[in-house]
Amino acid sequence: MINSMWSGVSGLRAHQTSMDVIGNDIANVNTVAFKQSDISFEDAFYNSMGSPTADTAGKQVGMGVNVGKITQDFTGGLLQSTGVPTNLGISGDGFFVLKDAAGLQTTYSRAGDFEFNYDSGADALNLRGPDGKYLYGTIGAASGSASSMIALPGDIQDMMISSSGQISYIDSTGSLVENAYTVDIATFPGETGLAQLGGNQYAETAASGQPDFDSTDHTIVQGYLENSNVDLAKEFTEMIVAERGFQANSRTVTTSDSMLQELLSLKR
């Protein structure tokens, strides 16, 4: 009886976590390039009163439920036109490579809501995200391993980025300078193993593996941003399922409590 109560409590906790995941997904329905998460449960350990044999099924009673895993769905979101030339969207796999001003801390993101940041010391324009991290790439027309901060002359008239990431610009004299940089896109053998840092950024982990810059399974779209991939119909359906699961486990707790009260009343 007590075990059933604790099984119910484990169910309440698991379904509360499920609601936390759903609530976070819905809260970020309009967050640039946000990726929704999926949660799955697994049964907890078993109290064995008799192991299965060739002639019997055994006697094992489960002790509740645990959260099995919470994984992100990296399916691409729809690209929406913004008309801002410094906004970039990725169609396909991969992440932008971002680093801090010192170039020491590397993070990865699909949110391409960059803006020009003027470096007066170098008289250069950098592409910087809203969190202050800078977009990195490779000098020239060929992709590399994102070793150089994008730094264009401070007096350019216009900037163009090709679908494969080459950056060209119109300089102060009106001349076209082609392929000054290439925006590198990183992919990971196990992208679901990336650590979420907040601010639309991820960090490499042992589970994700090291970044690979050889993939060409992507297209960079200038003047567009990737929308969140949150599916509200799916989230609301899962919300109903989580609510019903929570209610059912609440009934397990209250019924176990009623049975316990009946047991205690036998001594009166």
From TrEMBL:
A flexible structure which links the flagellar filament to the drive apparatus in the basal body. Keywords: Bacterial flagellum, Cell projection, Cilium, Flagellum. Residues 7-35 form the Flagellar basal body rod protein N-terminal domain. It comes from Pontiella agarivorans. Residues 90-169 form the Flagellar hook protein FlgE/F/G-like D1 domain. It comes from the Bacteria. Belongs to the flagella basal body rod proteins family. PANTHER family: FLAGELLAR HOOK PROTEIN FLGE, FLAGELLAR PROTEIN. It is found in: Bacterial flagellum basal body. Residues 221-266 form the Flagellar basal-body/hook protein C-terminal domain. This is Flagellar hook protein FlgE. Pfam families: Flg_bb_rod, Flg_bbr_C, LlgE_F_G_D1. Its main location: other.
